[in-house]
Specification:
The complex is a heterodimer of chains A (about 850) and B (about 375). By secondary structure, chain A is mostly helical. Helices cover about 70% and strands about 0% of the residues of chain A. Chain A has a three-stranded antiparallel β-sheet with strand order 3-5-4. Chain A has a two-stranded parallel ribbon with strand order 1-2. The two termini of chain A are about 55 Å apart. The relative contact order of chain A is 0.04. Helices cover about 50% and strands about 15% of the residues of chain B. Chain B contains twelve helices and eight strands. In chain B, strands 7-6-5-4-2-3-1-8 form an eight-stranded mixed β-sheet. The longest helix of chain B is centred in the last third of the chain and has 55 residues, at about 250-305. The chains are: A mainly alpha (about 850), B alpha/beta (about 375). Chain B: One of its GO terms (molecular function) is translation initiation factor activity. Chain B: Its main location: cytoplasm. Chain B: Belongs to the eIF-3 subunit H family.
């Protein structure tokens, strides 16, 4: 929400500040922005009157100048106003009025306009000090000013000579504002006009005692009032009877009130939206429409702010529709651009006049709209039960959303290509990323359809430089291009995400080696913990997808290694953001849980967890069973465990007294494991192949074939490990027939085992037999004894270390004893002979150095 | 039987004399419950420092449905001698025995074990319970099922040393206290010499045990030699025990190795605990020194400013030193290792002899 606000509505910082603060100084600010607006208006008018579009540069410069001037004066004012007492204020008022009068004499409307603004700015303070009534001086001044203005206008109509541009501008501004302002003070003004002297007399008398009069108001004041009235902003407008008479002229004023009431409590947003819909209907120019749309879309998003609830489908659709409309409008009128950080047009009465060929900037952010729209859809998908028709229904909107994104991308791209605009690279990156995130997890056929439909919706001549229309059918190319674009133009998280998306996509499309290389080259494993949680989730997803891809390619070992981290943790759900895992002893605060809920991926992006588990267990089985057979009973390698999860399951399964026919995936794998361990590879293959979940994979038949083959091979290995001690020789042909493998394959497997020193044997190729070497294997007692001696020497070493520490390596009295013990270990038992000291001295010194080093560190 | 007047509390127990009946009962009970540990009570009498064990009875094992696996039931069985229900049962049994005029003094308890794997906290606690609560002059008979099956009967009598008793009573097994008391792992258990005693009546009965006459019709002896070797005529009271000629050494050594490795693992665990303790102690002490220095500096400043100095012993309140882990486990572990070593030591000479005997017989040309 905050991001959205930030990006889209730079409508005016001043107004947003107004909402927050209630100090005097900010009243000035509002005035200041008003002033700016008038300057701006002047500017454009200037352009039109000069009939010279080429003067942009100078004008811009001028504008900036005046602006800064105004700002400067504001700055000064601020100081004085804040510090002034009542008298000082009145003095200032008088001074201002004098200036206006002087300007009237020389017909300098520019000065009048500025001074008039200043006057109005002073007014609220004066009213406050004058018991809620405007001072008479002020009334007099404005009444006179009105009269003079009318006079001037009349005169101008008569005289053919045109006024100076600056003057015209000032005059117009003043006229508009006077008309508005004086309405509020009409009573006083009338009184004044009836009898000027009497009125002023009264004034003189009552100068000290303030008069009770209705305060005169500027539009800025109305806003102030709204703020003061605490959130009843809209109702006030309604009460004013303005709700019924929307005219194209008043669009901006209405918009302003709405924008100002934004983010406050008790504003009826639905009502506002209705108003804006009406405004949209009556708006005439593109500019008006764009402005209305730019306001109505965020308001729709605001309807459901807060983390708990999601946007209703209707609202979302309307918002989407409006966004499309907006984009269409923008496409049609290239002169109007919506960019972030543009200046706001503050004059509600007047529209900017557009010169063809000249670009007019409107503040707003299309990218944020798109992002918000995307987020809202995701959020709503998170909340819908994925097994209902509603979900599918909602999912259809994704196509609309996607075309919106593409459209926005085209638009942002066009902005970017315009060198005058200096559009930020960031926004393009963001849209590209969004687009990528909508396609990376989809199979290419789906993406192709999506792309096709999207381009169909777009006008014929629309085309993108990043992703040309011609290439839209080539999905892989599309992903490639999008990612490459991001690699080139972005950095940090977006780049990493793009990388992960591409890896995911490649893995999804069976390009294991490419995916793996990219994954490794990215070096994200080392830095992923520094990224935000969503990127970490994406990383996990990618890792899992790579693992699955390896499995489909028949690379069991690689698959197991990739999946190990996620599946071995028992927290798959959490790591992949596919549902909350209720842990028994977890102490998750509701806050954390809420955050976690927000992170959940919508169902259509899920990776099937059951399939994942099945793949993981199958891979583990294929690796673990031969390992278990190889390890047998030797205690050294007993510790080597590939997958703890699998081991635990297997142990649990073996403990069961009665095992029924397998019911779920796990049972299948476990029973297959047992069969494989017993050498019944056929049974194992049957069990594995009867798992139903393989059907979910593309080309399940190939997968099953691959699995059968793997099982045959691992079965052979298991058999050799288990029964090698009982054979002297073994015919390869027998093995081949036993496992229904070609002889060459058997020979290959056996050779591999021999070369890895897993099997103490030789391959007799003449007789086609395996000859086992006997007595090479250590007996169990021998290996146990070896382990024991290792451990014992370890203990001795650690004892020596401890002694070193205790004696700080100085006490020789102890050293002699331990040394003797060490030296005598081979020969005499428990010998404490000092005579052996020399023999072991060298080794001992080395060792001492290490221990000393440690002592040095510790002390 | 024994003269109660000779009984003196001061003289230490010198040995244990076990009736054959007791041995048989223990053997039967232990092999029945194997591999679960069997426990029971011993009754008998103390005669001049010789503890005569004349009878025994098993403790009932509570049949808890084994949900948590094997480990728990064995623990339960091992802890049986000091279980409340069993104490009552024991008292009841002894009362009944008195009624039938059998020795009715509780002199200890017995337990079965496997490969000498009995030096653990459970045993210690049981024996401590007996020696403290019931009678100082009690023993624990340890029957090793596995070793007995390999030939020689393995039955040992143990007591806790008085030194250990006092340490255990205070339950202080810190490095400091151990250094002070000089308690070593060798001093935990005291083994008493054990003799098996048969009454003369029994011995003569054994020698005269009549064999039942053969039921089937006997064949006539073919020759004189046949007649001489007739099994009916001369039957020694005990058949030679062929178990003693068992040549398989591997299983025993393997098991011992396994157990030794286990002990080393346990030792490592204890070591790690202790190292952890030392590290945390070091940290705390560093903190305390830092605090003390700070306080000293502060006090110096306060004295200079003529203020009353702050107390310097507040650290005792502020910092809590970690408690030292009990060294008892490692002591017991060491004792256990010693037990294994002794077993192997006792095993090897016999086996070596057997091996040599076998070798000279089997190798042709070398036979003497």
């Amino acid at each position: 929400m905050s991001r959205f606000f930030h990006g889209s509505d730079s409508s005016s910082e001043s107004s947003s500040e107004e909402e927050e603060l209630y100090s005097e100084s900010e009243e000035e600010k509002s005035a200041e922005s008003e002033e700016e607006e008038s300057e701006e208006e002047d500017d454009s008018e200037d352009d039109s009157s000069d009939e010279d579009g080429a003067a942009t540069g100078v004008n811009r410069f001028l504008k900036k100048d005046t602006e800064s001037d105004a700002e400067e004066s504001d700055e000064e004012d601020k100081v004085t106003v804040v510090k002034s007492a009542k008298d000082k204020r009145f003095e200032e008022l008088e001074g201002t009025i004098r200036l206006i009068e002087n300007a009237e004499k020389i017909n300098d409307w520019a000065v009048i306009s500025t001074e008039y603004d200043k006057l109005n700015r002073l007014l609220p303070n004066l009213i406050k000090q004058n018991d809620g009534r405007p001072p008479k001086l002020y009334i007099k001044a404005i009444a006179d000013l009105e009269a003079f203005m009318q006079e001037t206008v009349e005169k101008q109509k008569v005289t053919p000579k045109k006024m100076n541009a600056v003057n015209t501008r000032g005059l117009n501004a003043v006229r508009q504002r006077i008309r508005k302002n004086n309405k509020d003070h009409s009573k006083e003004i009338d009184k004044y006009r009836e009898d000027k002297d009497a009125f002023m007399q009264e004034d003189v008398i009552e100068e000290a005692v303030p008069v009770a009069k209705k305060p005169k108001r500027t539009p800025g004041d109305i806003e102030q009032e709204i703020i003061g009235a605490d959130d009843s902003g809209f109702t006030m407008v309604g009460a004013g009877g303005r709700a019924v008479k929307y005219t194209p002229e008043e669009i901006f004023k209405n918009l302003r009130t709405i924008v100002e009431s934004r983010g406050r409590k008790n504003t009826d947003r639905l009502e506002q939206i209705k108003v804006m819909e009406k405004l949209l209907e009556i708006s005439v120019t593109d500019y008006q429409r764009i402005r209305v749309l730019l306001t109505v879309i965020p308001t729709r998003f605001d309807l459901t702010s807060g983390t708990g609830n999601q946007m209703s489908q209707e609202q979302w659709k309307v918002a989407e529709h409006e966004l499309t409309q907006l984009l269409q409008l923008l496409e049609q009128s290239p002169d109007l651009v919506v960019v972030e950080g543009a200046e706001e047009w503050e004059n509600d009465e007047k529209q900017p006049t557009l010169t063809p060929g000249e670009i007019f900037k409107i503040p707003g952010s299309i990218v944020s709209f798109v992002e918000r729209l995307d987020d809202e859809l995701t959020r709503s998908l998170q909340h819908i039960d994925p097994h209902t028709a509603e979900y599918v229904d909602r999912l259809r909107d994704e196509a609309d959303l996607y075309s919106c994104i593409v459209r926005a991308l085209l638009y942002v791209e066009s902005l970017k290509s315009n060198p005058k605009l200096e559009a930020s690279q960031d926004s393009v990156n963001r849209v590209v990323m969004r687009r990528l995130e909508h396609i990376y997890f989809k199979p290419s056929q789906v993406v192709a359809i999506l792309e096709e439909n999207t381009w169909k919706r777009m006008s014929e001549n629309a085309d993108s430089k990043i992703t040309p229309r011609a290439e839209s059918t080539n999905t892989e190319g599309l992903v490639q291009t999008l990612c490459t674009y991001l690699f080139q133009n972005s950095e940090g998280i977006i780049r990493a995400r793009a990388m992960l998306c591409q890896v995911y996509f490649l893995a999804l499309h069976e390009q294991y080696y490419q995916a793996r290389d990219m994954m490794l080259m990215s070096h994200l494993q080392e830095t992923i913990s520094n990224f935000d949680v969503n990127t970490q989730i994406l990383f996990n997803r990618t890792l899992v997808q790579v693992g699955l891809c390896a499995f489909r390619a028949g690379l069991v070992y690689e698959a197991q290694t990739s999946l190990q981290e996620i599946c071995g943790s028992n927290r798959q759900k959490e790591l992949l953001a596919q549902g909350l895992q209720m842990q028994r002893y977890s102490q998750i605060s509701p806050e954390q849980e809420r955050l976690e809920r927000q992170r959940q991926l919508p169902f259509h992006m899920h990776i099937n967890l059951e399939l994942l588990e099945c793949v993981y267990l199958t891979c583990s089985m294929l690796l673990e069973i031969p390992l278990l057979a190889q390890v047998g009973s030797s205690p050294d390698i007993r510790k080597r465990i590939i997958s703890k999860t699998y081991r635990r399951l297997l142990e649990y399964h073996e403990r069961q007294i009665f095992t029924g026919p397998p019911e779920n995936t796990r049972d299948h794998v476990m029973q297959a494991s047992r069969a494989l361990a017993a050498g019944e590879w056929k049974k194992a293959a049957d069990y594995i192949n009867s798992i139903k979940i393989w059907e979910l994979m593309a080309q399940s038949a190939t997968i099953k074939d691959m699995l059968s083959e793997q099982i045959q091979e691992e079965g052979l290995r298991t058999y050799l490990f288990t029964y090698a001690p009982y054979y002297d020789t073994l015919s390869v042909a027998t093995l081949a027939s036993m496992f229904e493998l070609p002889t060459r394959k058997v020979a290959a497997v056996v050779s591999k085992m021999i070369s890895h020193e897993e099997l103490a044997a030789a391959l007799d190729q003449v007789n086609d037999a395996i000859i086992f070497r006997k007595g090479v294997e250590l007996s169990r007692l021998q290996s146990l004894a070896l382990t024991l001696s290792d451990k014992a020497s370890g203990l001795i070493e650690s004892n020596e270390k401890t002694l070193e520490q205790r004696t700080q390596g100085t006490a020789n009295a102890f050293e002699r004893q331990t040394q003797g013990g060490r030296g005598g270990r081979g020969g005499q038992r428990g010998g404490r002979g000092g005579q052996q000291r020399g023999g072991s001295q060298g080794r001992r010194n080395n060792f001492t150095g290490g221990a000393l080093g440690r002592v040095g560190v510790q002390t | 039987m024994a003269d109660p007047t000779t009984y003196t509390a001061s003289s230490p127990l010198k040995g244990v004399q076990v009736e054959a009946l007791v041995v048989m009962k223990i053997t039967k009970h232990s092999s029945q419950t194997f591999p679960t540990i069997a426990t029971g009570a011993l009754v008998g009498m103390d005669v001049n420092g010789i503890l005569e064990v004349t009878n025994c009875f098993p403790f009932p094992t509570v049949d808890v449905p084994s949900q948590d696996g094997h480990q728990d039931t064995s623990n339960l069985a091992a802890a049986a001698p000091r279980a409340k229900a069993n104490v009552a049962y024991q008292a009841e049994m002894i009362k009944h025995m008195r009624d039938v005029n059998v020795d009715a003094n509780n002199v200890g308890w017995y337990m079965s074990t496997n490969m000498g794997n009995f030096v653990n906290l459970n045993t210690i606690e049981n024996q401590f319970f007996y020696q403290r609560d019931i009678n100082e002059r009690t023993v624990a008979l340890v029957y090793d099922v596995n070793r007995s099956s390999q030939g020689s009967l393995s039955l040992h009598a143990f007591r806790l040393s008085p030194q250990f008793m006092s340490s255990y009573r205070e339950n202080k097994f810190t490095t400091e206290s151990l250094q002070k008391s000089g308690l070593r792992y060798q001093d935990i258990l005291v083994e008493l010499p054990l003799t098996i005693h048969n009454s003369h009546l029994l011995t003569s009965l054994l020698h005269q045990l009549p064999t039942p006459p053969p039921s089937e019709e006997l064949k006539f002896p073919a020759d004189l030699a046949d007649l001489k070797s007739d099994r009916l005529t001369k039957q020694p009271p005990f058949d030679p025990n062929y178990d003693a000629l068992d040549l398989s050494i591997d299983p025993f050594l393997e098991k011992t190795c396994d157990l030794l490795l286990e002990s080393i693992e346990a030792h490592h665990t204890e070591l790690n605990n202790h190292q952890y303790y030392q590290r945390s102690l070091g940290r705390e002490q560093a903190k305390i020194t830092a605090w003390q220095q700070k306080r000293k500096a502060e006090n110096a400043a306060r004295v200079a400013a003529k203020q009353t100095p702050l107390p310097e012993d507040e650290w005792q309140r502020l910092f809590k030193l970690p408690t030292e882990p009990s060294r008892l486990e490692s002591l017991l572990n060491s004792r256990q290792v010693e037990q294994y070593a002794r077993q192997v030591d006792g095993f090897t000479p016999a086996v070596s002899g057997k091996m040599f005997a076998v070798k000279s017989n089997l190798l042709p040309g070398e036979g003497a």
